[in-house]
Amino acid sequence: MKINKIINNNVISVMQNNQESVVMGKGIGFQKQEGDIVEESKIDKVFDLNNQEISERFKTLLIEVPIEVVQAVEKIIEVAKVEYHKDLSDTIYVALTDHINFAIERQQEGMTIKNGLLWEIKKFYPTEYEIGIRALDWIDESAEVKLPVDEAAFIAIHLLNAEHNNLADYNQVTEMVRNILSLVKYHFRIDFDEESLTYFRFVTHLKFLAQRIYAKNSLNTSEMELYEIVKEKYKEAFKCVKKIESFLMKKYQYEMTHDEALYLTIHIQRLISRNESVDN
Asked: Is the whole-model pTM more than 0.85?
């Protein structure tokens, strides 16, 4: 087995039977070159992702995520599949890795976000919530960071979103996401870099929003102080969110909460900031 591409010191990709696999292990890519033989004794995990687009995003994400986080995420997914018989799409590797890495960074900076759906997730999706609770221990063991119980519910939401029997009809969710993306695109008169990780994060957030709307589960954590700060700091992004609010009310009779507007504003700001940095 030869190295196809070196992603970082701990992650490489290889080609086997015309299928690219992502290989992870401490120091497996250190001082190596493309074409070198893989040291099999250093292999901790092989990721065989069937979707090429997801595989590329996962490799991009692995450049910035510590190996300890990836190891914790892999254990969560493996247990969900093997012990709980969850049929998960490959998107879970990118979405959950990105979320947990960001959650750890927030925790280390003393920033915690309450999960407004904690009670609902715990009550209506006990299996996914149980996996989330167990995941907090695995994250602590691997990354040495204790995340709050709210994160167990966030992890459960990611698992639910990745299940092939999604909470809402796929076509309905896709239509809503597409309409919101069009609103953002025409408000800022920009074209999205659909290959970027920022765009993928935004679309994932919109899918969660769509799932909540169809499940009639609004997000409300009373982050009013932060809402007012973001509203003033990111005024143009907030104007765009107000358009989205009107659209959701008119088409779906759904009234967006302050918390949903808050997080949507932050995501839109990240998206347009990336576009501006690329243009410059």
From this structure: no
